[in-house]
Write a structure and sequence with these properties.
By secondary structure, this protein is of the alpha/beta class. The chain contains 20 helices and 35 strands. Among the domains are: 144 residues, Rossmann fold; 128 residues, ANL, C-terminal domain (GMP Synthetase, Chain A, domain 3, 2-Layer Sandwich).
């Protein structure tokens, strides 16, 4: 192993929220270090999460009990508590700024707390008048911006369950998510901007509305195609601009801690995407611990995390309002008009924290561009990085570009918990290529196949051995919980197995090496192979397909294997047709970078596609469960194709 290179050391650590929390809770743990605090947080979770409630000034009725301590996934936190998520987001000294890609200097539009509050009142009143009640589902197809933010918070106010999709998704990808939920309301944009182009979504809205019979109300954002859409849909429609101003107030009805706030979709290897139901209180507390303590986000900070509304970082970003920060929302391509646009955003919006993907940093570095030329960045304290592992080379490079004062802070988690397992620690030295350690309240370890803790530098499964507040309530439609338990707890009962390969470092940090299961992860966006297969169902000329990711230029790219049923006149033309079908039904992110035609696909004895075996092959790992394959010889053909491509 190469020697770890330090890229950041704590500065003015006593002023951090983390250090202040250590001091505020010293009577419980009698410590002064990160290790002391983490040990206490996992050994005494009731004390820790109760202390976080007090430290962060959570609004609500706390109740007598902080935790009912049983094994995963059955523990409950604050079982007697009552909170309203909207109340906690709106009651702080907050602001919102919006910037879209057409604003080349990122000057943006500023909204005050009062303006956001009024829009939430207007929306909540309008939704209630149209029959939205507690536990109804409401969904959005919107870009990041003021509209989707206020819509979500209005939903929380009413106790509705909120789900979102990004407008570049195709109709099949959206329907595979939203149709499960039987939503009552859809809000959608008639068009969106990306890389200098405008994309019309009128037909998509009509198709989605027609395919979901539970919908009763459509709210249209944008002026393009409004009348045409309203004429075609079968339900009541209203324009965003026509929602009446309300003179009412918000009641902030408080509901149980476990009342669902979100459904977020993560993808399995077969079937429709899994809709994970997330608790209001669990999401709030997990995000408070990460944002206030681990990321040191303080009152008055200005924070932006580049995301779309189809990625969990959008839900993470909403919670920044509970930390009394100004939320800076960016809509559009992060590489338009050039690849340094997010650093221009950081400078001109005076960001204290900027979040982006590791892949974007890799591309900027490979293009020989310099974020330092955009600077200086006198306000920036933290560069938050996720989506895919941040390599040591890129971490060293960006640290040099921004200077030693900026904390380069990679972290890793997932949609499954709407949060993170590991990431920054403001009291510890940061080393290139690794995350600093487990987050507070997360009893994280790396286990070998026998369930033993791995020593440093040995790869194993990333696990969490104890409950935490944002464990999902379950999977939508999984009445008896069997699918939920088999997804995360089947291998070791009572232990969360996340599906990431990881290793400890000698410095006490963690390195994430990629997915250990067959879920595709491209630049931080998790994609289910089932979505791709569904898009190709009935495609003339091919009988079966298998999708996987392959390491490529510091990230992952999707590769598709296809078995030809009828030899086409032109194989290249067939490849174009396959890509077009996937793009149309799913999204541009789902489109494979390469398509290979093979004679057969590896399957288990019960006929299931052996996706994990192919993923192991593509990542240069030993193929697991080889004896379970009915036709292991197919791997030889696939291996030869991959090797030829690597050397070409």
């Amino acid at each position: 192993m190469t020697e770890a290179v330090p890229i950041w050391s704590p500065q003015n650590s006593e002023s951090t929220q983390y250090a202040k929390f250590i001091e505020a809770t010293r009577s419980h743990h009698h410590g002064s270090t990160s290790a002391d605090l983490h040990r206490w947080s996992v050994e005494e979770p009731g004390q820790f999460w109760s202390a976080l409630w007090d430290f962060c000034g959570v609004i609500g009725e706390k109740g007598e009990r902080s935790v009912i301590p049983v094994s995963l996934p059955d523990s409950r936190f604050f079982p007697d508590a009552k909170i309203n998520l909207a109340e906690n987001l709106l009651s702080k000294s907050i602001g919102v700024a919006t910037v879209d890609e057409s604003d080349s200097q990122c000057l943006g539009v500023e909204y005050s707390r009062e303006q956001l509050l009024q829009k939430v009142i207007d929306l909540a009143t309008f939704l209630q008048e149209n029959g939205v009640e507690s536990s109804d589902c409401i969904v959005s197809i919107l870009p990041v911006g003021f509209e989707v933010l206020s819509f979500a918070i209005a939903g929380f106010e009413l106790g509705a369950i909120v789900a979102s999709a990004s407008p570049e998704f195709g109709d099949a990808a959206i329907l595979s998510r939203f149709a499960q939920l039987e939503p009552k309301v859809l809000i959608a944009t008639t068009s969106y901007k990306w890389a200098g182009k405008v994309f019309d979504r009128s037909e998509l809205i009509v198709e989605v509305t027609a395919a979901i019979p539970s919908l009763e109300l459509l709210i249209l954002v944008g002026e393009e195609g409004n009348s045409r859409i309203s004429e075609k849909v079968r339900i009541k429609s209203a324009r965003w601009s026509d929602i009446p101003r309300s003179i009412g107030t918000l009641s902030h009805t408080r509901r149980p801690f476990d009342h669902p706030a979100y459904v977020l979709f993560t993808s399995g290897t077969t079937g429709a995407p899994k809709g994970l139901m997330h608790r209001s209180g669990g999401v709030l507390f997990k995000h408070l611990s990460e944002q206030r303590l681990q990321c040191d986000i303080q009152e008055g900070d200005r924070v932006a995390f580049y995301t779309t509304t189809g990625w969990m970082m959008w839900n993470w970003e909403i919670s920044l309002l509970a930390s009394s920060a100004t939320l800076v929302l960016f809509d559009g391509s992060p590489t338009f008009p050039d690849m340094l646009q997010l650093f221009r955003l950081a400078k001109n919006q005076k960001l204290t924290h900027l979040g982006l993907s590791a892949r974007l940093l890799d591309v900027i570095k490979e293009s020989n561009l310099s974020p330092a030329e955009i600077g200086p960045f006198p306000h920036l304290r933290s560069l938050m990085v996720t989506g895919s592992p941040l390599s040591a080379d890129t971490a060293e490079w960006i640290s040099g570009e921004l200077g030693s004062r900026v904390h380069v802070s990679p972290f890793s988690g997932g949609t499954d918990l709407v949060g993170c397992f590991v990431g920054p620690d403001p009291l510890k030295t940061a080393y290139a290529g690794q995350m600093q350690g487990p987050f507070l309240g997360m009893d994280v370890d790396v286990w070998d196949e026998n369930g033993n803790s791995c020593p440093p530098d040995l790869l194993g499964e990333l696990v969490c051995k104890a409950p935490f507040p944002s464990v999902p309530l379950g999977i939508w439609g999984d009445v008896n919980g069997e699918r939920f338990r088999s997804t995360y707890f089947d291998k070791w009962p009572g232990v969360w197995v996340h599906g990431d390969l990881a290793s400890w470092t000698k410095q006490g940090g963690i390195i994430i090496h990629g997915r250990s299961d067959a879920t595709l992860n491209v630049s931080g966006v998790r994609i289910g192979t089932g979505e791709i297969y569904n898009a190709l169902e009935g495609t003339e000329g091919i009988s079966s397909t298998l999708a996987f990711t392959q390491p490529w230029n510091g990230d992952e790219r999707i590769v598709l294997l296809a078995v030809i049923a009828i030899e086409p006149e032109d194989r290249d033309e067939l490849k174009k047709q396959i890509k077009a079908k996937i793009r149309r039904a799913c999204s541009p992110r789902h489109v494979p970078a390469e398509i290979y035609f093979v004679s057969d696909l590896p399957r288990t004895f019960n006929g299931k596609l052996a996706e994990v075996a192919v993923a192991d092959l593509a990542h240069g790992r030993s193929v697991r469960n080889l004896t379970s394959l009915a036709n292991p010889e197919t791997l030889d053909e696939i291996s030869k194709l991959l090797n030829e491509q690597r050397t070409s």
